[in-house]
Amino acid sequence: MREMLLSHTMTYLKFMKNTIILKLARNRKSIRRYKTMSFNISKVLYAIKTAIQAPSGANQQPWMFIIIDNLNVKSKIREICERGEKNSMLMLEESLRSG
Asked: Model pTM greater than 0.70?
């Protein structure tokens, strides 16, 4: 009886955890308009330290974080990334067409 109760409790806890995660995912918002005010670097570093604790496949932890506070550098990086994304899509489309 105790094992059955424990099993039901664990199932319920997993359900609740999944429910909370789903609720967070559904209620998240993307921000496209950013403020140009300065930021608290210690909060950013804390967020990064927290993020690197997340599990990864085969514990590879393939992430890299770079903090850039220069607007010109950010703009150049954005241009390069958008160009790369566009080129990748063109290459994929060409590959799919040629079979």
From this structure: no
